[in-house]
Amino acid sequence: NIYGEKIIERFFNGCIPFYNVDRYDSRFVPGECAKNINQALKEFESDENYGLIILATMGPIYLDGTPFKGKDVATVNGLGVELINDKSEKNRWIVFETGMRNTLKKLSSTSNKRIIFVLDVPELGIEERYCGIPKNFVTVLGTKFGVGEQITYETCRQTRVDFNERTNRYHNLVKKILKEFPNVILFDPTSLFCDDEWCYGSKEGNKLYWGVDHLSYYGSAYVANSLSPVILDALK
User: Fold this and answer.
1) Alpha-carbon distance 22 to 84, whole Å?
2) The dihedral of CA 144, 128, 123, 12: what is its sign?
3) What is the pLDDT of residues 127-149, one digit of tens each?
4) 10-32, pLDDT tens digit by residue?
5) ∠ CA 18-19-20 to the nearest 5 degrees?
6) Cα(155)–Cα(179) distance, rounded to whole angstroms?
7) At 18, is the secondary structure helix, strand, or coil?
8) Do residues 31 and 15 lie in contact, with contact meaning Cβ atoms separated by under 8 Å?
9) Residues near 205 by beta carbon (within 8 Å), at least 6 away in sequence
10) Where are the beta strands (DSSP E) in 68-208?
11) What value, to the nearest 5°, has the Cα angle with vertex 224 and ends 220 and 228?
């Protein structure tokens, strides 16, 4: 790989990467997230060969409990976000804050471990199909014809105002907690997608998203191109 180091991925669909925090909906078995995440974090914490961990999760949809612009409803059907060691706490925001703070405190206690926390990318808020596909051309009897729909910013974007309303509380919570952990690196991809007026779902004629909130291969590589220097600097 490009880092010249061994990279281990511990990815569990729909989970929040904090000790003792469980997240589930009607598609998942309660308890599985907490079990898998606890095991992965303990592996990182105990193995001295691991020097850097990247923590990434979705935020607003899990904590607010509403799908952005009515999309991805399955994520909030039967939603549960709870501490397995204190199920009396029902406030999802407090559960998240408690889990994040405890996890960073535990991982930061080992001096040789570096931590990067990644804020999630903007939710697209529209169906991917409204971004269209790049127009290709076919030639019939010497005449060029366009095939497909041209991507336009007008059909593949959301307002920055809507994005801010959706994410401000979550971003502020994360930044408040990280003030307690100055050695934890924050990676915020917002500027890669948004300007002062809009957040875009396509870049240079390429779709950034697959579905309403997951990145396409192109979108993933686009973000990785900016995240990679942060990782390399943390590994020095």
Assistant:
1) 7
2) negative
3) 777 776 555 555 556 665 555 55
4) 889 899 999 999 999 999 999 99
5) 115
6) 38
7) coil
8) no
9) 134, 151
10) 80-83, 114-118, 136-140, 143-147, 157-159, 185-187, 198-200, 202-203, 206-207
11) 170
Helices 92-108/32-46 angle, 10° precision: 20
Report strand pairing: 202-203 vs 206-207: antiparallel
Q: What is the pTM of this model?
A: 0.88
pLDDT greater than 60 at residue 183: yes
Tokens representing 68 are 């952005």
Sole residue written with tokens 């804020």: 119
Q: Residue 104 is which amino acid?
A: L
d(C-alpha 24, C-alpha 32), whole Å: 8
